Fold ATP synthase subunit a.
Amino acid sequence: MTTTVEGAANHAPTASEYIKHHLGHLSNHHQEGPVDFSIIHYDTMFWSIAMGVLALLVMWMAARKATSGVPGRFQAAVEILVEMVDNQSKTIVHGDRSFIAPLALTVFVWVALMNSLDFLPVDLFSAAFSALGVEHLFPYHRVVPTADLNGTIGISLGVLILMIYYGIKIKGFGGWLHELFAAPFGIWMAPFNLLLNIIEYAAKMVSLGMRLFGNMFAGELLFLLIALLGSTATVFGFAGQVIAGSIWAIFHILIVFLQAFIFMMLTLVYLGQAHEGH
């Protein structure tokens, strides 16, 4: 992210230019329309994979350092988290949880880490790229993968695949297919049932991704608006930036972990529903 935009190299960007530029992605080409399946957001891919690796590293370190004696702070925190996730999975999923409980834990840690990137200063990377002289290679750069609809829908698409997988695994392909055509109004309403069930699957996937995206995008946008207070070059602007930024950052801590918890819980709910019939 740079603080200048294309066509505005000789003057300071306006507030709208500043926000628009910071909301741009480093991608393989410019997106022309509202839907373009050929576009790849390199920044979203990089940070989501990096946070996934970090999440696995954190959990691997916790497992490696686990002892049967008095746990340290790190081990105690991880044990509390694991116990919380396991208790939730027991309540929601009635069946084999040997894969689902670790999946829920991974989802929570991964999403929480991706959300936490929103705490980084909005101009941190633009300043770093300028200092290194590579700003021309990174004209755009967004750090928070969950503030990109492509990222959240991608995760929810994985949950959708698991919903279908467990539906077939628990009920058998024939049972799952019969339920797809016969539930909830009986086989004589098969076309309507099929349409309704397809819409239900799609609604679950879209709502799961949209909920996380909406909250994180709004938080990122608010951080940008607060950052603009400092551009007023007044005492009120600088004081407002510090005070408002600090208050919103503290409140955003709750949002970051709450949204990760909600995403994890909905994942468990949807997989739990896949274990049950209509």
Observations:
- Residues 1-9 have pLDDT under 50 and may be disordered.
